[in-house]
Amino acid sequence: MREHENRDKKPNLVFLIADDHRFDGIGAYGNQVIQTPVLDSLAAEGVRFTSIYTMGGQTAALCVPSRACLLTGTNVFQATITEKEVKLGETENQQLWAINPALPTWPEVYRREGYRTYGIGKWHNGKESFARSFADGANIFFGGMGDHIGLPIHEYDPTGKYPADHAVPSEKFSTELFAETAIDFIQNYKEEEPFVLYVAFTAPHDPRTPPQAYLDLYTRDHIPLPDNFMAEHPFDNGEMHVRDEKLASIPRRSEEIRQHLAEYYSMITQMDEQIGRIVQALNQTNQREQTLIVYTADHGIALGQHGLMGKQSLYDHSIHIPLIMQGPGIPQGVVASGLGCQMDIFPTLCELTETSLPQTVEGKSMIGMISGERSESRKSVFAAYKNVQRMVSDGRWKLIRYFRRDEVGTNRTQLFDLSDDPWETHDLAEDSAKQDQLQRLEQELLAWQQSVQDPILHEREKRG
């Protein structure tokens, strides 16, 4: 291709998303134990967003709603739910497991704009939405979790049906399999149009069983416990008996949590190395300079923090995620500290690549934070978990509201000053000097619930 044609061509997009990778599980985010040299390098060469949050969801399988928000750029109640009447707590309701068919996904938008869209790895949002999002793909896993060797893998089906009996068990570890599939695509891509390469890892989700060489990098006794490690959560948060909470003994034992962290870090380090191979393939095919690389995660996870193991809470360890962007249009070494929401990624990508943005998108572009034109894209972020928890944070002050229902949970409110208490261990809700902050956040939260038609308000109205 001639040089002027290269300049005029829109950039490629390599979008990498992990499962359960919380914001502080990367060296560049301040973790001094974990080894993530590739992600650290991408952060140094691009922009690292420090305050990006998910919006939770109405199902314990939080990867479903979080990915739906990311893919559609809409709020958690709009992204997956297509009917107003929702019986809260019915987590197996199928309308909670698929993307709202009225909403275009961002890969679908890029496909319409002339990009070659290629999907690899985990897709937990229904086969219909995958079919309309991607023109091609390989080694696709429709599901939430499974053993990293032996996952039921589909090849791309042009009909979009993907019958279950057509899946074949994978023979390689999932992280390596998905990375090698991406490398094959990059090395063999000869088309004129730009591409979107969507790579969804199942790591570092459990079962955390990385190859021994990566486990050997982390000795359990040398893994520090987080400052907010607790033997048990101090009260019933409404979701104390979900599957994730049964992955370690109760009360939590420090040596067991250290082992979980060692395995978690091992999975991330293996994934980091495989991402490095993808970046190397871009370099070897002379496509790196015209490729935007994005790394993020669907949500975080507790692993001993607050006495919890899973992601079914609204503490930062569960809803605060990493986001790194590097490539054309991205300045080097930028740390964007303003608040952002997962649904803001969609409009940000579109602005970076000069791609048309659908009117359905609610998210706000974060380009201003990248360029330095403004310090933030939004004043507050919000989140919900099932019918038992709601959250609002302005970046410093954070409120979590808990609801007791059907003999489960606790009616109470927590208030944290994240500037002094980033580990969320000092509840200020009963502090008389902080009542103005509490009341202000309560009003913000209620206004947000009303604006997004939070189903919990609808049910309370029905109950009178």
Summarize this structure as a short list of keywords or feature phrases.
464 residues; Alkaline Phosphatase, subunit A; 9-stranded mixed sheet; 5-stranded mixed sheet; 18% strand; disordered N terminus
- Stretches with pLDDT under 50, minimum 5 residues: 1-5, 82-95
Give the ordered list of helices and strands.
HEHEEHHHEHEEEHEHHEHEEEHHEEEEHH
CATH topology: Alkaline Phosphatase, subunit A
- What does the radius of gyration come to? 21 Å
The tally of strands reads: 16
Per the principal axes of the C-alpha atoms, what is the gross shape? globular
> How many helices?
14
Q: Which CATH class applies here? A: Alpha Beta
* Count of discrete domains: 1
Alpha-carbon distance between the termini? 67 Å
User: For the record, what is the CATH homologous superfamily label?
Assistant: Alkaline Phosphatase, subunit A
Give the biggest sheet.
9 strands, mixed
Q: Strand percentage, roughly?
A: 15-25%
What does the oligomeric state look like here?
single chain
Give the helix proportion (percent range): 25-40%
CATH architectural label: 3-Layer(aba) Sandwich
* Structural classification: alpha/beta
Secondary-structure map with pairings?
Elements: H1 3-8, E1 12-18, H2 37-45, E2 47-53, E3 56-57, H3 63-72, H4 76-80, H5 106-112, E4 116-123, H6 127-133, E5 136-142, E6 152-153, E7 168-169, H7 174-188, E8 195-200, H8 212-215, H9 254-284, E9 291-297, H10 316-319, E10 320-326, E11 334-336, E12 340-341, H11 345-352, H12 367-371, E13 381-385, E14 389-393, E15 397-402, E16 412-417, H13 435-451, H14 455-463
Helix pairs in contact: 7-9
